[in-house]
């Protein structure tokens, strides 16, 4: 899920790691859980939805990077699939 930086509020510390020259990833400094990803030039921050507790009211809109999924992983439910992220 992408959230405009102007609408994102984070409580607590995040440790950032420069994953590539174009993007970085945010992790919990206590347990190491992956929380965020951020392209250096993007106005939005991606949130790892698995890191959220409780009901969110969100629904899945698309699967991305399906060309790179493991052969053990099946996609169900008729949600649009993209070979790469657009």
TrEMBL record:
Pfam families: GFA
SUPFAM superfamilies: Mss4-like (SSF51316)
Keyword terms: Metal-binding, Zinc
InterPro entries hit by this protein: CENP-V/GFA, Mss4-like_sf
Ranges where the CENP-V/GFA domain occurs: 3-67
GO molecular function: carbon-sulfur lyase activity; metal ion binding
Keyword Repeat carried by entry: no
Coiled coil: none
Similarity annotation: Belongs to the Gfa family.
Protein name as catalogued: CENP-V/GFA domain-containing protein
Species of the source: Yoonia vestfoldensis SKA53
């Amino acid at each position: 899920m992408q959230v405009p930086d102007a609408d994102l509020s984070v409580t607590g510390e995040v440790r950032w790691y420069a994953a590539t020259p174009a993007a970085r990833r945010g992790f919990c400094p206590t347990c190491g859980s992956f929380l965020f990803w951020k392209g250096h030039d993007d106005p939005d921050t991606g949130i790892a939805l698995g890191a959220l507790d409780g009901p969110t009211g969100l629904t899945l809109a698309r699967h991305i990077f399906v060309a790179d999924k493991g052969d053990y992983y099946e996609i169900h439910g008729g949600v649009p699939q993209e070979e790469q992220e657009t």
